[in-house]
Amino acid sequence: MQSNTKQNLWGYLFIGPFIIGFLAFTIIPIITSFYLSFTSYDLFSAPQWIGFDNFKEMFTDDPRYLHSLKITIIYVFAGVPLRLLFALVVAMLLNTASRAVGLYRTLYYLPSLIGGSVAVAIMWRNIFGDEGVVNLALMSMGIDPVRWFGDPTAALWMLIFLSIWQFGSSMLIFLAGLKSIPQSYYEAASVDGANYFQKFFKITVPMLSPVILFNAIMQTISAFMTFVPAYIISKGTGGPLDGTLLYSLYLFKQGFEFFSMGYASAMAWIMLIIIAIFTSIIFMSSRFWVHYESEGGK
Amino acid sequence: MKAKYINKFIYHIIVGGFAVLLLYPVAWLIMSSFKQSERIFLTADSLIPNPFVLSNYGQGWQGFGDYGFGTFMTNTAIFVVLVLIGHLISCTLIAFGFARLKFAGRGFWFAIMILTLMLPAEVVMIPQYIIFAKLGWLDSLKPLVIPAYFGHPFFIFLLVQFIRTIPRELDEAAIIDGCNTFGIYRRIILPLLVPALATTAIFTFYWTWDNLLGPVLYLNSPSKYTVSMALNMFLSNETVSNWGAMFAMSVVSLIPVFIIFFIFQRYVVEGISTSGLKG
């Protein structure tokens, strides 16, 4: 039997790297960031304490900030539900006994595999170019081509389409969830004469709800933080007319282009608060729609 | 019986057709890299390059200025390997500590780790940059690599979950045989952890290979640029440089990603569906 001290020693020896890293790369930066958000700081001269001025400026004096916040919320609220819906539909299509399912699963996951890379953003940018494939396809259907890079709304939708296109990881998680639903539930429902939609809403959705919750939260958080596609597709400008100036990109520009480190820190804190609010709303709403088998349902 | 076949046929038409639609952009990118630069957009609607040229690859590989694409590939490979070693060592040690050792404050630190997982990178990005700048670490791999040696919350969590599925009886047997705590980690847990380590390694590879923000923040000299940064440079030179070379190098940058995927497909797919890895 080991003594308590010895056990503690071993424990802290093993998790020691985490504690050191946490202090150095997380806690000290968090405290610094909190302090900086109340200062004006350009990295070269000492930070100047300015109280709540950064926060005041954001909401009253910086239309670009409010615009960036607005389009980020549109990006999240249009992109995430569509992506999840897409992922769920495909997962249901693939939840069959067909032998080709393995191949399809791979093919559908491929766009997400190459997800965050610069190559994908470059490709996407060109597919939506004025003479790109998407416009050619629209024209062949008799629809006027869209100037994806000329119109701020169209450019934002181009980013949303990109995020929907990469639905693969959510799909795989849904697929794992679907596989864990006992087939006997569906058989019993069939015996009782349930139709396809009844089975979907009375069995699939409730049984899958914890997975839906998990996906919704993870995707919402990561959507709020989207940076690379907006940065590449707009060549770092957030254009056209700030149409793709997502929150992270604007924060990056404030910090590392305009060297407003204090302002960017304040932006980061507002972002943290917004993400916390949205995830807690999703969490709290889950009481009404998430069904946990172990609790015997509602 | 006949109806069953028709249903099957319709199913494959729908599911297969949709897959083709989704993969069209990737095919377009690959095929465009074999087209003559000036004809890429004239023939944007056709997939087949006519004429089929390989010269884009040669031109792209030359890179720009004094640095060829080979330099960027080497830089990225070094970056990936250093982070990989860091994650594999630190995450397994930490995960073993959390999953197997009883010590005062374990619950507290575990909760802290889970909270770190939820923290947007933006909140710590600016102070981290300032700290690394003060340390004189700018324009080196240090800010990108050193933190990897202190664990990554996501992989720690993944490994903890995995270690919990390993029976404790094995540890007890090892203790009776005279193993100390480090011996249990080294001789019992590590060998059994291989599938979870594969997931950790593969996703570390993907995230590091794709990382753009980190290198953009910390690397300034072109001799140290990574593949992502080089592609980004191609794009910002787009008016003067040629499209074909950019597409060709985009394809090259994806080759390692595809190779890893096809070799370790099982681990990638299981890793995502059991742990919910993002991507």
From TrEMBL, chain A:
Pfam families in the cross-refs: BPD_transp_1
Protein name listed in UniProt: Sugar ABC transporter permease
Keywords noted in UniProt: Cell membrane, Membrane, Transmembrane, Transmembrane helix, Transport
Transmembrane spans: 12-36, 73-94, 106-124, 154-178, 211-233, 266-290
Primary location recorded for the protein, binned into one broad class: membrane
Location in or out of the cell: Cell membrane
Residues making up the signal peptide according to the UniProt record: none
Membrane topology, as annotated: Multi-pass membrane protein
Highest taxon, organism lineage: Bacteria
Organism, as annotated: Gracilibacillus salinarum
Lineage, highest ranks first: Bacteria, Bacillati, Bacillota, Bacilli, Bacillales
Key word Transmembrane helix present: yes
InterPro entries linked: ABC_transporter_permease, MetI-like, MetI-like_sf
Family the entry assigns: Belongs to the binding-protein-dependent transport system permease family.
Domain ABC transmembrane type-1: 69-282
Automatic annotation (TrEMBL), chain B:
Pfam families registered for this protein in UniProt: BPD_transp_1 (PF00528)
Transmembrane segments: 9-31, 77-96, 108-132, 144-163, 184-209, 243-264
Keyword hit for Nucleus: no
Domain ABC transmembrane type-1: 73-264
SUPFAM superfamilies from the UniProt entry: MetI-like (SSF161098)
PANTHER family xref list: ABC TRANSPORTER PERMEASE PROTEIN MG189-RELATED-RELATED, ABC TRANSPORTER PERMEASE PROTEIN YESQ-RELATED
CDD domains: TM_PBP2 (cd06261)
Subcellular compartments: Cell membrane
Organism from which the protein derives: Gracilibacillus salinarum
Family the entry assigns: Belongs to the binding-protein-dependent transport system permease family.
Protein name per Swiss-Prot or TrEMBL: Carbohydrate ABC transporter permease
Membrane topology of the entry: Multi-pass membrane protein
